[in-house]
Amino acid sequence: MMAVLTVLGLLSVVWGVYAVWTWWREREMLPRLVDKTVLITGCDSGFGNLLARRLDQLGLRVFAGCLTEAGVAELRQSCSERLQPIRMDITSSDSVQQAFLVVKDSVGSKGLWGLVNNAGIFGPLGSVEWPTIEDYRAVLNVNLLGLIDVTKTFLPLLKKSRGRVVNVTSGAGRTAVPFQGPYTVSKYGAEGFSDVLRRGMKYFGVTVHIIEPGKFRTGIVVQEAIRRNMYGCYESQSQETKEEYGLDYVHEMHKGFNEDEGDDPTAVSMAMEHALCAAHPKSRYVVGQATRRVWVPISWLPTDLGDYVIRVVAPWMAPVPAACKGGA
């Protein structure tokens, strides 16, 4: 028994020393940030908008990709001349190529220091049966295929500077969320692509960093938008499917999702900033208390045990359909 306690004590000391050393090492920032240029997608609002403003304040040159002209105008009015907002639809290869030419002409032989793939959409919410194949395509075109297209297009500029790629995935890319089918599939794909990219680009000096947010207060999770999404998806089903699931199925999902309004999105933009500006950034940033303490640990469990834990801690994620309640 004494030997076991001794070993545990030594492991605790080693872990403590490692944690302190890592914390100290990660505090060091890169010099001369004003020489760095970063491209961010999805800057109309949310995490991308916050990050663009913050990097502009730090003196970096920022290309802020916006889907809408309103997004471009808002950033142009509120930020310095260092920040250049550009129209960018990442589901259009032509739009991505046009953005590439703008950035290439600007950075020249220095290359691009950072690419932040932040643009994303939620997609329909409900039972895995409810979204159509077109729904899956729409979400994948933004969250996965658009991310891949932008990354492949800008890699030559990132290689020149031995720069960094920052991909925003999700806690839903580690633990499947039953009522977020298309979104979860897209984020699992983004996780896989990020891992492949990180290992494949190592010898070119390009590093890859994954941001895994949980639920944060952004436009994507506004309660009224979520309510319309869930109930609209249900109402679009056939009468047979609606009777099979029942309206209480949607009530329970909606009630559970909106119990927590979400965390301050500044935490996510700070993680992005660290990935771009730290001398020793992390490969993966898990951001948000629920993601760190619940969803990622669940992903470490054996599959059947993980499924059971989800049913216990978050039954609203997969309520029992009306037709199954008799044998549930």
TrEMBL record:
UniProt cross-references to Pfam families, sorted A to Z: adh_short
A molecular-function term among this protein's GO annotations: oxidoreductase activity
UniProt signal peptide: none
UniProt keyword terms in alphabetical order: Oxidoreductase
Sequence intervals crossing the membrane: none
InterPro entries: NAD(P)-bd_dom_sf (IPR036291), Sc_DH/Rdtase_CS (IPR020904), SDR_fam (IPR002347)
GO biological process terms, semicolon-separated: steroid metabolic process
Gene3D superfamilies xref list: NAD(P)-binding Rossmann-like Domain
SUPFAM superfamilies: NAD(P)-binding Rossmann-fold domains
Keyword Nuclease applies: no
Family stated for the protein in its record: Belongs to the short-chain dehydrogenases/reductases (SDR) family.
PANTHER family: 3BETA-HYDROXYSTEROID DEHYDROGENASE DHS-16 (PTHR43313:SF1), SHORT-CHAIN DEHYDROGENASE/REDUCTASE FAMILY 9C (PTHR43313)
Listed name of the protein: Retinol dehydrogenase 16-like
Taxon lineage: Eukaryota, Metazoa, Chordata, Cephalochordata, Leptocardii
